[in-house]
Design goal:
Blueprint lengths: L2 E7 L3 H13 L5 E4 L8 H4 L11 H4 L15 H14 L6 E2 L2 E9 L4 E8 L5 E11 L24 E2 L14 E5 L3 H11 L4 E6 L5 E4 L4 H9 L2 H25 L1 H15 L6 H4 L12 E4 L2 H8 L2 E5 L2 E5 L2 E4 L4 E3 L2 E4 L12 E4 L2 E2 L7 E2 L3 E2 L5 E3 L8 H22 L3 E4 L8 E3 L6 H6 L5 E3 L10 H10 L7 E4 L12
Parallel strand pairs: 1-2, 1-6, 2-3, 4-17, 6-21, 7-16, 8-9, 8-16, 9-12, 10-11
Antiparallel strand pairs: 4-5, 5-6, 13-14, 14-15, 17-18, 19-20, 22-25, 23-24
The structure holds flavin-adenine dinucleotide.
The site of flavin-adenine dinucleotide has 32 residues, from helix 1 and strand 4.
Length: about 500
């Protein structure tokens, strides 16, 4: 049976990053990336709706080791996908990918100090068995087979197409049509200006408003820095500049919510037509960053509203009708196409059934160690990005840390590393500190964070930088052991 030192799950943005780190920092390690789909890119290959783009800046969503060199800081989905593919090809990471292999089971055996893995071939249905010394799960955070779709009354009565953005039909013709987009999150506000360029009219139907702020698609300060600084150092400086300014705005939002609400409101007043009902449509009941803040490049959503090609309705759905939607207020919204931008269904570790020495891992009872490993689960790390900044900022740190951990074990001749909490005063809290519906719906199935280091999840690049890059690998919570009779040669095969 095949044995790998490291098994990476998923060939998305994080999995390709993980491949880079493992092959450069741990050249001794045999590794493969198992990918359930037949393509690289994960999110950036799956989502194909009109206007798909990043909603955080590319200088921090790009990898540290291959700085984003596009002019635009908010990039379209196709460019991001190409960037991931190019990274994989340039470094030969793509030769390590096993496409159409979904990892379905992982059973840790302390006696053998290895994971026994079962993968299913998604093309042939065959089962593939192998073992590995370490699992690095880069499987993202949501289900690929379906999105979140509430069961609205009367959906079957509607005469036109009902589309979920996760499965956008390539041939959908919306030119000259009346489109209603249900939702007020990042997907809805990305889609609407794009649809509005050819649709007869686009209505954003929201139950409640979100905070939306506009940023230039081309960041003038970042681009000036890039021009002024030589080659590689420009990428590094711009990345830090964007990471720190994003973090500073987040901290300001948490500490001075009133001030940030005022700043955001002034921005809206400048960009929306005079007299626009900002109170109803753009003033959330919660504080900035209680939920992820939405970003529009160059105010594109506000431009569409000002031009009259898009509008916002804040109401609730009573039922779908043959010709559109009946709202709780009694209003009928006519539509030719209805888009349910109602979100994702979250999923942890790619839905893998995992056990440790025969005992199923109940994720909901586990604390996360440094936001990247699980209490009581040996030799497994997870790439989970930030909710308040670019995903890759955290994943790059996690990848670097995992490689240091692997090298440390190899040098010390230990085969097993298990985060263990022996501090009874550590209390559990929700892993992701946002009140957004999609997070609350799944919070009970997710691991928790603890109230103290190293069990806390900081959502702060600076603090994680210190914790994951500058501190040693050994600490009182990480237990290294060597359960197998033959102590050498660490986790190498
Ligand atoms: C529409 C959209 C826009 C986004 N925009 C941003 C943004 O601007 N900035 C930001 O920071 N974040 C954004 N995100 C979050 C985004 O998902 C991350 O930025 C990033 O792409 C995640 O990369 P990933 O590789 O960790 O996960 P994914 O992109 O989800 O890739 C995971 C891969 O793992 C594979 N996989 C899963 N389970 C298994 C299994 N059991 N076996 C084998 N393979 C498996 C999947 O098929 C997939 O290819 C966005 C998300 C969405 C949905």
């Amino acid at each position: 049976m095949e044995h790998l030192d490291v098994l990476i799950v998923g060939a998305g943005l994080s999995g390709i990053g993980a491949g880079h780190y493992v092959q450069t920092e741990c050249p001794w390690a045999s590794y493969a990336i198992f990918e359930a789909r037949d393509a690289i890119g994960g999110t950036w290959d799956l989502f194909r709706y009109p206007g798909i783009r990043s909603d955080s800046d590319m200088f921090t969503l790009g990898y540290v080791f291959r700085p984003w060199d596009g002019e635009k800081s908010i990039a379209d989905g196709a460019s991001i996908l190409q960037y991931i593919k190019d990274t994989a090809a340039v470094e030969g990471i793509d030769t390590h990918i096993r496409f159409n292999h979904r990892i379905v089971r992982a059973d840790w055996s302390t006696e053998d100090a290895r994971w026994n893995i079962t993968a299913e071939r998604t093309d042939t249905g065959e089962t593939v068995e192998l073992s590995c010394g370490f699992i690095f799960s880069c499987s993202g955070y949501y289900r690929y087979d379906h999105g979140y779709q509430p069961d609205f009354p009367g959906m079957e009565r509607f005469g036109g197409p009902i589309i979920h953005p996760q499965f956008w039909p390539e041939d959908l013709d919306y030119a000259g049509k009346r489109v209603v987009v249900i939702g007020s999150g990042a997907t809805a506000i990305t889609l609407i200006p794009s649809l509005a360029t050819t649709a007869a009219h686009v209505t954003m139907l929201q139950r409640s408003p979100s905070y939306i702020t506009s940023l230039p698609a081309k960041d003038p300060i970042a681009n000036a820095l890039r021009r002024a600084l030589p080659g590689r150092s420009a990428g590094e400086v711009v990345r830090w500049f964007k990471a720190l300014t994003t973090q500073a705005f987040y901290e300001l939002s948490r500490r001075r919510p009133k001030l940030v609400k005022t700043i955001l409101r002034k921005g809206l007043e400048r960009q929306l037509p005079s007299g626009y009902d900002i109170d109803t449509h753009f003033t959330p009941s919660y504080n900035p960053w209680d939920q992820r803040m939405c970003l529009v490049p160059d105010g594109d959503l506000f431009k569409a509203i000002s031009a009259g090609t898009a509008s916002v309705v804040t109401d609730q759905i009573e039922s779908f009708t043959e010709t559109g939607l009946l709202l709780k207020s009694g209003t009928q919204l006519d539509a030719d196409i209805i888009v349910t931008a109602t979100g994702l269904e979250l999923l942890f570790i790619g839905g893998i059934d995992a056990t440790v020495d025969g005992a199923p891992i109940d994720l909901s009872t586990k604390l996360t160690y440094k936001g990247m490993m699980l209490e009581g689960v040996p030799n497994l790390a997870l790439a989970i990005g930030y909710t308040n900044a670019s995903w890759t900022l955290k994943c790059d740190l996690t990848c670097g840390y995992v490689c240091r951990l692997l090298n440390h074990m190899r040098e010390a001749g230990t085969r097993q590393c298990t985060p263990v909490n022996s501090d009874a005063s550590v209390t559990a809290r929700p892993l992701l500190g946002l009140s957004s519906g999609y997070i609350q719906r799944s919070a009970d199935r997710f691991p928790k964070q603890g109230s103290k280091f190293p069990w806390q999840v900081h959502q702060s690049y600076l603090r994680d930088y210190r914790a994951l890059k500058m501190r040693g690998i050994e600490d009182s919570a990480m237990v290294f052991s060597n359960p197998v009779a033959d102590p050498a040669p660490a986790i190498a095969s």
